[in-house]
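hey
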């Protein structure tokens, strides 16, 4: 049996957990400890009651997520939080969370993985958040409709496309998740086609004003890549099986 401490130490270093800035409630790293051993890894975008129940049924004792247990902030251990902690403790499930460290990782990160899945090359970091560059951009001459079709195929779902930019892309920017509200900052970096997960209503109007293509693939759908890649990497390194626990939010 592999020790939990070994995996956590390796993952912390590999993802640079202590070096990368993030929102306080992300609380990156080990959030819940188990009894000390790991026999099966689970990966999921979010931690929730449904995910924890599914993890317990599949004998997962280390759950890796992108959005951890403490996003709502400081709260009493009652109701939902009490139920989630009880499920974790009763089923000996450790919880490891990685937010921005997993978004920006150059190999396993959400943005790098999505760019690779789309066949984009010569990707380089862009868009500063919390003191580091979190997105990727690629100089790619690609018909925007072809990019839209590729994105739908990669995400296995619909894409909301607001095509107000050039019919053939020049510079594509990718920031997975909920980065649509940053469209003005993205535009300042000479991005003509912006791929993200979700956006507020006014971002569609902004895309028109900025003459930019805006493609929204869904917050959840664009962020399954990192946890899958990390779980697969740890599985290979430590010779432990892993499973993806799919619990889409519809957003």
């Amino acid at each position: 049996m592999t020790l939990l401490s070994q995996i956590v130490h390796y993952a912390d270093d590999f993802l640079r957990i202590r070096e990368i800035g993030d929102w306080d409630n992300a609380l990156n790293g080990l959030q819940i400890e188990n009894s000390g051993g790991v026999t099966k890894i689970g990966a999921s975008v979010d931690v929730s009651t449904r995910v924890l129940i599914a993890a317990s049924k599949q004998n997962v004792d280390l759950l890796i997520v992108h959005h951890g247990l403490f996003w709502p902030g400081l709260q009493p251990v009652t109701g939902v939080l009490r139920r989630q902690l009880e499920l974790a403790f009763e089923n000996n499930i450790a919880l490891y969370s990685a937010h921005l460290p997993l978004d920006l990782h150059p190999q396993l990160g959400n943005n790098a993985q999505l760019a690779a899945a789309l066949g984009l090359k010569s990707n380089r970091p862009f868009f500063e958040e919390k003191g580091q560059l979190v997105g990727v951009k690629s100089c790619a001459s690609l018909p925007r409709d072809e990019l839209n079709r590729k994105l739908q195929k990669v995400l296995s779902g619909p894409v909301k496309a607001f095509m107000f930019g050039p019919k053939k892309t020049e510079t594509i920017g990718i920031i997975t998740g909920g980065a649509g509200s940053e469209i003005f900052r993205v535009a300042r970096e000479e991005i003509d086609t912006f791929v993200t997960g979700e956006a507020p209503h006014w971002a569609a109007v902004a895309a028109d004003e900025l003459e930019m293509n805006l493609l929204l693939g869904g917050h959840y759908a664009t962020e399954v890549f990192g946890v899958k890649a990390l779980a697969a990497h740890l599985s290979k390194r430590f010779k432990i099986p892993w499973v993806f626990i799919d619990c889409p939010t519809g957003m």
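Residues 9 and 26 are 18 Å apart (CA to CA). The radius of gyration is 19 Å.
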